[in-house]
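Consider what follows.

. . .
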Amino acid sequence: MGPYEVTQKEYQEVMGDNPSNFSGENLPVENISWLDAVTYCNARSEQEGLTPVYTIDGTSVSWDRSANGYRLPTEAEWEYACRAGTTTPFNTETSISAEESNYWGDYPYMIEDNYFNQGNLETKPGVYRQTTMEVNSFSPNAWGLYNMHGNVGEWVWDYYGEYSAQVQTDPTGPETGTRRVYRGGGWNDFAKNLRSAYRAALPQVNSSYNIGLRLVRNAVVGTGSIAGTGTNTTGSSGGNILIAYFSWGGNTRGIAEEIHRQTGADLFEIQMVEPYSTDYNTVLEQAQRDQNEQARPELSTHVENMDQYGTIILGYPNWWASIPMPIASFLEEYDFSGKTILPFCSHGGGGLGQSQTAIAKLAPEASMAEGLAINYSGGSGMPDDVAAWLDANGIER
């Protein structure tokens, strides 16, 4: 396993371009999809005279386990390497600090349960750098691997799915699926999403400014071939467009109304039977309680005919680096098979956080387009940001 995440310099030397949001030769490459990652593995293998590991046919990818080229680790390999013999949530064996890893340092582990009484925290809030760091930053784990926690999430081979209940040796995950897993958490994640066991997932064609990769090669020659056949989640090109949103302070509502103004699409507000408090501190507690319990608040509004919509533009505030639980209630109420979900959020500095992963897990049969993150209400530039995002996703204005 490579001791470092793949750098922008390494990626550009092989692929001829650098898609990263941040710029620096020794910063990790990011903003790459899973398909970009396996394509890079093959290209680098060929450049170095090694046998490419993957056979790529459109969105179907098979893995030749006997090949000696570069590849992505499996989930099991990644977690084994990250833990480096530990059984604690982090390989530091203590609650990881912002001096040990690059993440949203304002939110150390267990902050959600101790936001108003931080004296109980093992690790106190620290710096939030709001950018990636060079790949050799911080101390490595006990096995010499850098930034297994934080900086950028790292794509692995596996489709997202439930673990087998049986003991397994070197598992490679499900043979089919709709989402690929990435591990480790990124620069804009809360510490809870950096845990050795935390699993994030996105469609293999999606990219993000906090996801990169780390390379591995076989230590011994493997046998056989593993097919990776993605379940078709191509979104419908027909049907109407629905803008569905949940808003607490009004920022998300303002963005939704701007999308409505530009597209003329139907507008639907997700509301609760028992609304959250209008007091900020109280709603923080309520929202965290619901996340901890994975609550599904009862909704007072319902879409009369979801079948007529092919595209759902889904809006929400980024709460605790994820979706508010009313969004989970909404996603579980309807069948999104064959539909396209375009997520957008208002946030106070964390972008989309892990909200796209939460949506991907709750609506696995939907296609998911690239999300839009607007800081608070977005200011005067918000309409242009919305327009550019709609255009990029092929939504007529």
The first helix runs from residue 8 to 15.
